[in-house]
Amino acid sequence: xxxxxxxxxxxxxxxxxxxxxxxxxxxxxxxxxxxxxxxxxxxxxxxxxxxxxxxxxxxxxxxxxxxxxxxxxxxxxxxxxxxxxxxxxxxxxxxxxxxxxxxxxxxxxxxxxxxxxxxxxxxxxxxxxxxxxxxxxxxxxxxxxxxxxxxxxxxxxxxxxxxxxxxxxxxxxxxxxxxxxxxxxxxxxxxxxxxxxxxxxxxxxxxxxxxxxxxxxxxxxxxxxxxxxxxxxxxxxxxxxxxxxxxxxxxxxxxxx
Length: 257
Ligand SMILES: [Zn+2]
Known about the structure:
Helices cover 38% and strands 11% of the residues. The chain has a four-stranded antiparallel beta sheet. A two-stranded antiparallel sheet has the order 1-2. The longest helix is centred in the first third of the chain and has 22 residues. The protein contains ten helices and six strands; from the N terminus they run αααββαβααβαβαβαα. Zinc ion (ZN) binds next to loops.
């Protein structure tokens, strides 16, 4: 009898153990079996998550979307993806900038409108006084030259990607003669971002009447990626206002369509 009781006790103990083992299925295994993605979506170390991709402008236009206009001589004339200019538009007071990069573009791209050309020379002299050697890389671009440039980029990278940093012909502010790309001799345009000269430009160009035309946090308005090198002449008062209020030209003018 005593032996039977012992056997019964062992049997009950064995049954309890077996039952427990069934309930003991680890939650993690269960999750993985039922929904593998639930486990995969939860990285063990959040610090190892991939960094967010930079936000690129999505505004894309074709040449047929907006009518071409002949711009006025207004210093604040707006030229962008939705306000393009006619093929034959050429400002009548383009002059050659002295302090240019001789290895970039052609004789036309070394020009800007007279007022803007004088201002860029002042800016370059001011930078020099602060210890920075800056040159003007590209000023005026004709419609046909922009056509050639855009098509070169599009052939290599596709039209959509090219249009995040290169304007279609007619949609380039460079055709107005009011803007330019600046840089440092011997330094690639896209490496300018990382240079102290780019910081100087961002902090000081307004004093000479220029604005940083394509800021990093306004790509949805301008339609272009951040360009540390592209500055636009708007005159000293407007440049100071735009700088102090963190605006784009589109926002300043109230033209966001
Ligand atoms: Zn530019």
